[in-house]
Amino acid sequence: MEGCKIYYYLVVLDYCFRENDEKCMQKIKKAILTGGGRATRLRPVTSTMNKHLIPLANKPMIFHAIAKAVEAGVEEIFINTNPGETDLQKHIGDGGHWGIKIQFFEQTGGPQGIAHVVNEAQKFIGDDPFMFYLSDNIILGSIKPMLDNFAENKFDCMLALSKVPDPNRFGVPIFDSSNNLIDVHEKPKNPPNDFAVTGIYLYGPKVFFDAFKKINKSARGEYEISDIHSYFLKNNFKVGHKEITGWWKDTGAPIDLILANQLLLEEIPESEFKNLGQVLSGAQIFGKVKIGVGTTVDQDVKINGPVIIGENCTLKNCIISPNVTIGSGSIIEGVEIANSIILTNCHLICDLKIKDSIVGGNVQIKKKNNDGFHRLIVGEQTVIEL
Hints:
Layout: H1 2-24, E1 30-33, E2 55-56, E3 59-60, H2 61-71, E4 76-81, H3 87-92, E5 101-106, H4 114-120, H5 122-125, E6 130-133, E7 137-139, H6 144-153, E8 157-163, E9 171-175, E10 181-186, E11 195-203, H7 207-212, H8 225-234, E12 239-243, E13 248-250, H9 254-267, E14 278-279, E15 284-286, E16 289-291, E17 296-297, E18 302-304, E19 307-309, E20 314-316, E21 319-320, E22 324-326, E23 331-338, E24 341-342, E25 347-355, E26 358-359, E27 364-366
Parallel strand pairs: 1-4, 1-6, 4-5, 8-12, 14-17, 15-18, 16-19, 17-20, 18-21, 19-22, 20-23, 21-23, 22-24, 23-25, 24-26, 25-27
Antiparallel strand pairs: 2-3, 6-11, 7-13, 8-11, 9-10
């Protein structure tokens, strides 16, 4: 009986030590993801859809960010939205698809910088450590080692860095002569190095919200996330940093989306490329090709993977070259497509070669009797090369 008591006490003590250990290690279970903004550089595609729903590898862009967070151990995600928007909620749901909880919140008072987005989520985060993830950042590989490093070293803040050709577009880390991180400058005209602070940030309990009270809006009228990090570094907070040695991309321009789509297609394992449609005898299919339910591929079609074709599509007399995704409900006939993103319900029925392109949802490009003229109904900021 006495031995049982001792065993019970040991079990309780072990549980307490493990519970305290986890608290001390600041394991991150909560994350804020961005879902707002207007993405003017991606118009006209974003004139009618939220940027974060643009499909990459035929999945909404934000789905890739959610998957990365879940794989790293996050259990609750909070996503900001533009006032009045409901598209994200309809596509993402409550998180049950990933086995987690997802809530949405509007950024009040209009766009005031991404630091303001984080501060708006304070009621959800409370006093817990958390990750802030810009959902338009695409990264290959796991972010879990970064979260583990943050927890093990008990950092107040941890930044992910990456070498880029244009650091003047980002927050840039400043190092001293001993290579210690001493400051972060937002979009400097003459960057002192070629590193950028990427859109993955980790914060310890309460430190972000306390720092937010100490910063002011920048000259462009926004609360800059770099000012938060600068405050930490100038006030002896423990700030860690880790270089992303794999591939990272901020998808701010159309060419970035096309490149991200290509690299995600290449990363997907071959086992996920399955033919669930109808491929007629004579069709030529090579490499990794995924074909959705209800899709018909005619006998005069040639496809070179990696390629993903959505559900209920029809392909006739066409050539689909590598790194192409085609959205559900599309009809492709007489067209050659390479390295491009075709959104849902597109009808491309003509003699045309398309490369390095993004075709928005419900677009129609049709063959017409040749009288020397083209008929165009074109939206604002559309780009056409003939």
